[in-house]
């Protein structure tokens, strides 16, 4: 007797059920819980035009000195190794670092966004120790930085935008900037090392993952 395969949607449903305790759930679609004016007004994202080679380092410092010399810098990065995922935050001003081992179902894209969200939590808890109310979050994931202007949003985007609005109400201005990875930029090199170290942390952050990390075609 030839067995008939289940329709694709039923197969997907059963597949999702097997991950139900590890996927973020909400009674609202994230894009519908946001004010799009806030979405646009909070987007201070800078994507420099780097040229490969030693000039990357010089270009980076020229941009920082010209545009962000009075900003409190915070670097973020993520790492993935087989079923292990992690991210880290590095604050060179306070010589402070935070490392997280996170849900193994996160894609590297979601990890990078998650690291930015955790950086905003870090700012919320420690901004009174900062010398500046201008914050610059630096990531080497260009695609994650640009994704915050898309309409296909998830709960991490939602959390980032809510955090930005909260910090703005406190009188803080947050900007984001892309740094080219592995270009000798000390803060980026340090946070990259920390993110790899975090893969060995035993305790895993309880945050659920994005459903599209498990079912990519949604």
From TrEMBL:
InterPro entries, A to Z: RNaseH-like_sf, RNaseH_domain, RNaseH_sf
Superkingdom of this protein's organism: Eukaryota
One Pfam family linked to the record: RNase_H
Domain RNase H type-1: 68-200
CDD domains documented for this protein: Rnase_HI_RT_non_LTR
Name of the protein this chain belongs to: RNase H type-1 domain-containing protein
């Amino acid at each position: 007797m030839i067995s008939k395969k289940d329709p694709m949607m039923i197969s997907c449903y059963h597949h999702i059920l097997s991950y139900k305790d590890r996927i973020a759930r909400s009674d609202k679609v994230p894009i519908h819980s946001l004010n799009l004016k806030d979405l646009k007004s909070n987007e201070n994202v800078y994507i420099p035009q780097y040229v490969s080679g030693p000039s990357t380092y010089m270009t980076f410092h020229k941009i920082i000195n010209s545009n962000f010399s009075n900003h409190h810098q915070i670097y973020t990065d993520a790492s993935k190794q087989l079923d292990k995922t992690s991210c880290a935050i590095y604050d060179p001003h306070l010589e402070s670092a935070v490392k997280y081992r996170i849900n193994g179902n996160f894609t590297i894209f979601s990890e990078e966004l998650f690291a930015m969200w955790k950086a905003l939590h870090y700012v919320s808890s420690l901004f009174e120790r900062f010398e500046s109310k201008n914050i610059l979050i630096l990531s080497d994931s260009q695609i994650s930085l640009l994704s915050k202007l898309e309409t296909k949003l998830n709960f991490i985007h939602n959390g980032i935008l809510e955090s930005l609005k909260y910090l703005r109400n406190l009188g803080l201005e947050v900007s984001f900037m892309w740094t080219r990875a592995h270009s000798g930029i000390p803060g980026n090199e340090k946070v990259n090392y920390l993110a790899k170290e975090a893969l060995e942390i035993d305790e895993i952050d309880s945050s659920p993952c994005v459903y599209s990390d498990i079912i990519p075609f949604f």
